[in-house]
Amino acid sequence: MEKVIVTHSVEETKLIAKKLIHELSVGDVVLLSGDLGAGKTTFVGGVMEELGYKGHVISPTFNILKCYFEVTPHIYHIDAYRLEDQNIDIGLEEYIEGDGIAFIEWPKFIEPLIPNKHLNIVITRVDDNTRQIVISSTHPSYERLLNSFEAK
Q1: 83 and 64 in contact (C-beta within 8 Å)?
Q2: Per-residue pLDDT tens for 124-140?
Q3: Cα Dmax for the chain
Q4: How are beta strands 2-7 and 131-136 bridged, if at all?
Q5: Most buried one in 20, 55, 86, 111, CB count within 10 A?
Q6: Is 84 exposed, middle or buried (0-12, 13-18, 19+ CB in 10 A)?
Q7: How many domains does the chain have?
Q8: What's the DSSP call for residue 69?
Q9: How far apart are CA 65 and CA 52, in angstroms?
Q10: Positive or negative, the Cα torsion across 91, 93, 95, 33?
Q11: Whether residue 122 has pLDDT greater than 70
Q12: Tens-digit pLDDT profile for residues 23-77
């Protein structure tokens, strides 16, 4: 099952993220795919705003992992871009299967670590302001979440 949503601004993209976080719970894993600059980190920024985080959200490309313990639920923001062709045995499982919600950018580079139960979000840049967001999952536990979004 999938939902396709088109947004026309950064604010609209963040609104989708803000709605999504209320449908997720501890232990959920969200895979974020899309080209560089598509809006993956912006999406996580929307989640963090909704949870009351006051800081600036940046991609953890050079850190690989950013933990946000100051919000509830805890958010683990993973950027696996630099792990291509690398040994992925660096302890990420602890966060992916941890006591928070994991948002993983570039999940294809750590595919063996991805649990069967996960939500896929693919963000495609249409133009400077417009994004197509496809939210999907084959796991039945996400059916209610997917139904909470109106198809466009």
Answers
A1: yes
A2: 999 999 999 999 998 88
A3: 40
A4: antiparallel
A5: 20
A6: exposed
A7: 1
A8: T
A9: 20
A10: positive
A11: yes
A12: 999 999 999 999 988 999 999 999 999 999 999 898 877 788 999 999 999 999 9
Can you read off the two tokens belonging to residue 21?
């976080």
How many angstroms separate the Cα of 143 from the Cα of each of 3, 8, 30, 105, 124? 11, 26, 14, 22, 23
Neighbours of 66 (CB within 10 A): 17
* CATH number of 75's domain: 3.40.50.300
Instruction: State the pLDDT at residue 152.
Output: 44
Residues paired with residue 75 on neighbouring β-strands, in sequence order: 68, 101
Q: Is 130 domain-assigned?
A: no
- Do 109 and 87 touch, CB atoms closer than 8 A? no
Query: Is 35 a domain residue?
Result: yes
Query: What is the identity of the amino acid at 38?
Result: A
How close are the terminal C-alpha atoms of the chain, in Å? 14
pLDDT 10s digits, 80-121: 887 766 656 677 888 898 899 999 999 998 888 899 999 999
